[in-house]
């Protein structure tokens, strides 16, 4: 059996007596697209913030390729090979698509400020290699026509694609997608779904995805975990999850919950 690339084991997280996660456990296998779903306020984003080192739980273990993540800072976790997109777009609106993607390569600049000013030797070779890597991402995500445009002038769906590209620019070994199609129209959603599948199938990247679009999740995910009030209520394949009475009850009651 292949060892999981990620193990999230019995994690508990609370804030001022309010429990955000209570005994959440799951694994992600190599090349797998693992989705986390649940009503608003169920704890989905808290899982991502634990994985990214933003939150430190009071109990549990999170291991990535055998390395414990709890206690590590976000930048150290990113260096281990975990890339992330955000629910709200976090790009530099005044910079071009190319420049935003180059910022995703910051872990791959093995030189200092003086070498950069001189534009010689290692700095020049590294910059050219990073530019080549970014150009490959531009081609992969079909961003060539916008490469010189400031991101703030682009359609919303293209901006979300640029953010995905910036996460890929860091050459992650695991990709966290936080609501990748939130706010998109049907055409933009279909484009993003295609790119997510290409990342899994062509690049071989395991993915953890939080998403509210149930149709998208059921079409794309290999396995799904459903959380409600910070607790996992079902983990399984899309057909198994869709038929589970507890999952149906959680979603039928979701409209009466407060957003969180």
UniProtKB/TrEMBL annotation:
Classification via SUPFAM superfamilies: P-loop containing nucleoside triphosphate hydrolases
- Keywords (A to Z) from UniProt: ATP-binding, Nucleotide-binding, Transport
Instruction: Tell me the superkingdom of the source.
Output: Bacteria
Gene3D superfamilies assigned to the protein according to its UniProt record, in alphabetical order = P-loop containing nucleotide triphosphate hydrolases (3.40.50.300)
Looking at the record, the residues that make up the ABC transporter domain are 6-254
The terms describing its cellular component in GO are: plasma membrane
Gene Ontology molecular function: any one: ATP binding
Q: Which InterPro entries match?
A: AAA+_ATPase (IPR003593), ABC_AA/LPS_Transport (IPR051120), ABC_transporter-like_ATP-bd (IPR003439), BCA_ABC_TP_C (IPR032823), P-loop_NTPase (IPR027417)
Cross-referenced PROSITE patterns: ABC_TRANSPORTER_2 (PS50893)
Spell out the protein name for this chain.
Answer: ABC transporter ATP-binding protein
Organism, by scientific name, is: Kribbella sandramycini
Q: What is the lineage of its organism?
A: Bacteria, Bacillati, Actinomycetota, Actinomycetes, Propionibacteriales
